[in-house]
Amino acid sequence: MPQLSALLTHARAWLPGRNTVDARERMRAVAGAAIGLLITALLCRWMAQAVDVSIWLIAPMGASAVLVFAVPASPLAQPWSVVVGNTLSTLVGIACIRWIPDPAWAAAIAVGGAIGLMFATRSLHPPGGAAALLAVLTHTDHFSAALFPTFTNSLLLVLAGVAYNSFTGRRYPHVVRPPPADARFSQADIDAVLARYNQVLDISRDDLESLIQQTELESYKRRLGTLHCSDIMSREPVSVEFGTPLQEAWMLMNQRRIKALPVIDRTRRVVGIVTQADFFRLLDLEHHEGIAGRLRDLIRATRTVVSNKPEVVGQIMTRQVRVASADRPVVDLVPLFSEGGHHHIPIIDHEKRLTGMITQSDFVRALYSAVRP
User: Fold this and answer.
1) What are the tens digits of pLDDT across the range 47-75?
2) Rounded to whole angstroms, how far apart are CA atoms 76 and 64?
3) Quick one: average pLDDT of 287-301?
4) Across the chain, which distance is largest between two alpha carbons, in Å?
5) With b meaning 16 or more CB within 10 Å and e meaning fewer, what string describes 252-267?
6) CB atoms < 10 A from the CB of 237, how many?
7) Long-range CB contacts (< 8 A, 24+ apart) of 41-47?
8) CA-CA to 101 of 20 to 30 Å: which in 5, 95, 127, 357?
9) Cβ atoms of residues 264 and 239 within 8 Å
């Protein structure tokens, strides 16, 4: 049944996509379009009476209102596109009805010419095509009609859109924000992809970038959110006790090629952590000469009863150690590794006993597994 499946797929393409806008945003757009068009109509009717003009509001303003108030982030809804796109399109329509006798030909050429001119002036605005067609169908042959009502309607609608969208928390005009310095991709990257796509997108570049980043983040959370510490931790980690000699702890680190050892008590509860940094903190690192010798002196056990240096792990360990439970989501560790400066996190079970260890390497591997295709 491949043909039936292909037919159903083609049929679904004619159906509307899922609406992701909530009721509050819908009401915001409905009220904005009504208010904006009302203000435009009242003012233009008053102006028309003052100058004795019969037509004071054109139908394409309804479509412009949809864009300005329902999709104010769209490049097609920006002030330049609305005002210049509608005005130039009206001029094209007037020129066509004046110089092309056949209305059918005039209508087709007017709409096509309006689109071409809007492309050239970077003022593409869908209602502009309607404005050009309206001029032809109503046999409007005075170029002053482009100034009033088209230009005046468009300008007043835009001003109402600026006020209303700003009041309701929407950026309008939708100024493109430069990408942050640490952005994963640059404006040039987006431009290169859009050039290959070679179609008009009804979304600004910065919104497109933001959507891509947020989508990646959601995907990352979804994939990483199913992982728990027990899934990525190193099990049965090497550990030491409070009274473990420094030399023994140092040898364990070198033999196992690890940089940290959790310190546990006899019940395997974590009481601290000792790292290579704890050893080097006791050395005079300002003088590089003889560091190896000073390190040997530090870890060598003192044979006398009294010692003037640390002898066991408990004397140099970090007592305030962050731990995580084995059933904790891995995503919760992001701030610990990225902002907290942690490199090793002991993992404990439900009885608070040491059961594993997560290092930065373990965490990076988990991140890579979560974000790779």
Assistant:
1) 999 888 889 999 999 999 999 999 998 99
2) 9
3) 76
4) 115
5) bbeeeebebbbbbeee
6) 21
7) 43/156, 44/148, 44/149, 44/152, 44/153, 44/156, 47/148, 47/152
8) 127
9) yes
